Each structure stands twice: as structure tokens, then as C-alpha cells.
Amino acid sequence: MDFDSHYDKNAAADALQLVVSAQLDVVKNTSTNAVQLVNLLQTDNLVVQETGNKQKPIWRLGIMNSDGAIEEELSIRMHGILTRVDLTAGSLFRCDAAKVANLCQRIEIVGLNSQLFTEAIQNVVALHSAFERFFGPDRVIPVNVGDSYSGHRMICTCLYLSKAGPDSAPEVPFGMGVDPLGELAKYRKSGLIHTSENQVTYFRSADDGNAGSKHDTVYEAFPASFRAGDIVEVQGSVIGFATKSQKIKTIFQMSSLTLIHSTQSKEAEKARAKAGPPSLPAVTLKRKKWHEQEDREVVKTRRKLKDLDISSAGPPKEGEE
């Protein structure tokens, strides 16, 4: 979505700055910041760990402690404004299993020059070096700066389903908000399952109307409650997977999405409704020449019908019906 004239982009940027300022301490305490990330990249504490099943493995970044055990997955938190929202599967009528396997929950957010958002993007790009160190630079696909990360823009995804295998993560049920008609659940018979790695949790701040709040109280939310123009918080991690050419591609996989502030998107919707549907320019249709002969025949027939008098028609002649 491109912000239209009904959306107050300047007010949204100011609100985003208030959100970032209020959340700065929380982000520093609960997410890897730039200084910590640099230290991790310069040591061997940041490791690439294989997860998923052997048929289609996924590589994740973990933090190793002094005992050599991987404590946790490296997580990044960022705040931005939604410009694209695809969080429900929609109708899957006549979709084959191969297509469904690639369906994903997808959002796109922009930072409007927010310093914290820019820093988060730089962190994501820097994490590719960990994959290059593990797999070798020739095997890892370079970061496409012109696609996912251009113009302070980030694309976050998470697959709905994964291929089942003997070493797959435990299966978890779909939430009503994600699969309300049970269409995705039907594809479990095709060897596809929904695990905790495919699950995105959705929340809504209790202080939605106050951008400067700490937003430390949240409630569960349905995916359908998110709209383009909302200010959100995204948590996720950088993962890698093998392509058909056996190259390693990295993406940002979201694990949670929280609606922080929706005032600007609501005001824009009200303004659009008040303005009404856009007026369409008047169009004059010109008939083609091949209609002219047909039009002349129609005119002749109408004239005959107009001049026809039933009293002058007389009885039918012999042999006529």
C-alpha cells in the first residue's frame, strides 16, 4: 500500500517516534541490540543450528553459553507501520498441496526514518555474515537490498505449514483466527503439518489510543484486526533454508505481531468513507463501423412494424399460417 491523501503520514511518524521512545528500555532489555550483536558476530557464541526435518531443514541462529549449550534463539524486535497485511489464508479451493506448502503469513512494514527501525534492519543484514561463515560465502544468496530492505522497509513472513518428518517439531492446532474454515487443516493428509515453528502469536495493546504508553499490557488478537497503517511491534529471527539449487536463502521469520497504535489508520478509514467512492471520468463509447449495416436493418424493420395495421392485414392466404 502507498499512503494516500487520507492517511496522515506526518502524524504517523510522530506517533511511531513516541512508541519507539516508550519502548526503548524494553527493547534493550529483551532483544539483542546493536552492541550485543557486534560482540556476538566477533565471537563463536553465535551459532547456526539445524532444525526442522531432514527432507527440508531450516537453519536458525542460536546463542551459545560458556558450557557449549545453545541457550536461546537470537531474536530481534522492531516497530514500524504496516503497509501490507496477508495474515489469513483465504479460500484454498482447488489448491494443490505444493502450492499450499508455500503459503505464508506475510506483512510489510516501514520505519519512516525511525532510528531504531533502521538499526533493526542493519542487524538483520549483518546476521547474514553468520550464515556465510557457516556455509561459505559462495553458497549463501547475497542480501537483496533492492527487495526486502530497501527504503527502510522490511518483509516478515512465516509459513503456515511444514513437511512432516520423523524428527519434526510437535504439531499444534490452528487458531480460529488463522484458519476459521478449517481449510488449512485439511492438508495435513498431504504430509503437511502445523508446528510451533509455523505459529505466529497475535496481540493487541490495551493502550492502543496512547502512543506514548509503555504498552506492557496486551491481549490476544485476531489476525483480521490488523490494518495497513497500524503501528505494530514485530518479533522474529533470521532463518535460512535451501533452495532448489541448494543455495541458502535467508529471510526474517516473525514469531509474534502486536498492534500498538491504530489511531492514524482509523482516522484514514473515516476520511475515505466520508469522501465517498472516487469519481470516474465520463467515457464516450464509439460504435464500430461493422454495426452500421446492422443498425440500418433494425431501422427498416422498426418502420415496417410501425406502419403495420392489423385491420389491413386481411385473412391469411391459402397455405399460410
Question: Could you explain how this protein is built, in words?
Answer:
Residues 291-300 have a biased composition (Basic and acidic residues). Residues 268-321 are annotated as: Disordered. With 321 residues, this protein is of the alpha+beta class. The protein has one domain. The chain has eight helices and twelve strands. The protein has helices spanning 9-30, 34-41, 97-100, 115-126, 128-135, 263-275, 290-307, 310-313, and strands spanning 46-52, 57-64, 70-73, 76-86, 104-110, 153-159, 162-163, 192-193, 201-205, 218-220, 231-242, 248-261. Strands 1, 2, 3, 4, 5, 6, 9, 10, 11 and 12 form a ten-stranded mixed β-sheet that branches. The mean pLDDT is 80.
Topology of helices and strands:
Blueprint: H1 9-30, H2 34-41, E1 46-52, E2 57-64, E3 70-73, E4 76-86, H3 97-100, E5 104-110, H4 115-126, H5 128-135, E6 153-159, E7 162-163, E8 192-193, E9 201-205, E10 218-220, E11 231-242, E12 248-261, H6 263-275, H7 290-307, H8 310-313
Parallel strand pairs: 9-12
Antiparallel strand pairs: 1-2, 2-3, 2-11, 4-5, 4-11, 5-6, 7-8, 9-10, 11-12
